[in-house]
Amino acid sequence: xxxxxxxxxxxxxxxxxxxxxxxxxxxxxxxxxxxxxxxxxxxxxxxxxxxxxxxxxxxxxxxxxxxxxxxxxxxxxxxxxxxxxxxxxxxxxxxxxxxxxxxxxxxxxxxxxxxxxxxxxxxxxxxxxxxxxxxxxxxxxxxxxxxxxxxxxxxxxxxxxxxxxxxxxxxxxxxxxxxxxxxxxxxxxxxxxxxxxxxxxxxxxxxxxxxxxxxxxxxxxxxxxxxxxxxxxxxxxxxxxxxxxxxxxxxxxxxxx
Length: 257
Fold this sequence. Notes:
Elements: H1 12-23, H2 43-56, E1 59-67, E2 75-82, E3 87-92, E4 99-105, E5 108-113, H3 115-121, H4 124-133, E6 137-141, H5 148-151, H6 156-165, E7 175-176, E8 180-182, E9 185-194, E10 197-204, E11 211-218, E12 224-230, E13 246-248, H7 249-256
Parallel strand pairs: 6-13
Antiparallel strand pairs: 1-2, 1-12, 2-3, 3-4, 4-5, 5-6, 7-9, 8-9, 9-10, 10-11, 11-12
């Protein structure tokens, strides 16, 4: 008996974000002066500055929504993450797959799959674990192979390295849209279309030029996704699940056999 394996590919948000950033040409090195007004910058210069701002963030709130090509239930992710690998949030797996709460602090991770998650596994062990947990978190090491995929979603530093290591793209023409607002914040949209896929990134027009949202639509196969960024440099909450709401993953393994 190997115990519960939470085999969730939580790093999908990284792929979605990098897709969006590379498609709008945000992965190059900065070329514009930091004090240049955004109205005077070209689309390429705004993209470069936005890349620098994103790579410089120590923490952020990420939320994603990705609709599968077959038009099924979207998968979602809502996480507050930092460079130290701490995080708190949730993943919605789409369809009848359920959702999972996650808290990570240092090398310790707590995960709480909902009832639908266990039901979708439809196995004797899954039913036993759902009964043992009774709404509590599983607790274990982030390096445990049963939890490592999920814990890897919390690694902001790794994501920023991916952004830094990618070369800027020359696919399609990057255009600068007219300044508008996004949830009351002035933004400048940058748009690129390539092989039927349209990617729009909204860059903050005041303060640091962070990317605030990326929308990916169309393409073949069709892949619609949205990634939103907020709460830059605000610390990840330090609260972790209390002992009476936690079951060690190895203890569950013993009781489920």
